Structures are given as structure tokens and as C-alpha cells.
Amino acid sequence: MEGHEIVGFVAGFGTTFAAASDLFAILKRRSSQGMNPMMAGIMGSFQIMWVHYGILIDSMPVVVWNIIAVVTNFLMVGVFFNLPAL
Fold first, then answer.
1. CA separation for the pair 46, 55 (Å, rounded)
2. Mean pLDDT score of the chain, rounded to an integer?
């Protein structure tokens, strides 16, 4: 693995799991209060474009982390519609 790929994986880890921490917090408190599903849906939609871009430029870090981010954001939307806002 080359140096720029290592930087890409570290950066992707940070940005992807920043959103995942919100998902874990919502699940822990069992409430979707304060969550904006529109933001998560928009982010997930544009991250699909990042996945496509990563494929076009043959960048594994861009592809991998954005696939994880897409799943995380769409899980957030699903959680919003399945948990009460207390």
C-alpha cells in the first residue's frame, strides 16, 4: 500500500466514523430526537456519487469508506423512522 492510500484510509476512517458515532448514540438512547433524516439521506445519496468517483479513479480508500458511509447514513434514516422521538 502506498503512502497516499494510507492517508486516504485514515481520513476516511475519521469522517466515516464521525457519522457512525451519531448512529450509535441514537441507538443507545433509543430515541431519534434531534436527528435530521433529510441530512442523512442527502449525505448518503452524494456518497454514492463518491463511490462511483472512487471506482473511476481506481481509489480503494474512496470506494471502501464511502460504501461504509452510505450504509451508515441510510441506517440513520431507517432508525429515524423506526424509533420514537422522545
1. 14
2. 85
Q: What's the pTM?
A: 0.76
Write down all domains in the chain, each with its CATH number in brackets: 3-82 (1.20.1280.290)
Which grid cell is 51?
Answer: 463511490
Higher pLDDT, 1 or 62: 62
The residue to which cell 460504501 is assigned: 67
Q: Are 69 and 19 in contact (CB under 8 A)?
A: yes
The confidence band for 85, taking pLDDT boundaries of 50, 70 and 90, is low
Beta carbons of 32 and 85 less than 8 angstroms apart:
yes
CA distance 18 to 12: 10
- 18 touches 65 (CB < 8 A): no
**Structural Rg of the chain based on CA atoms:** 14
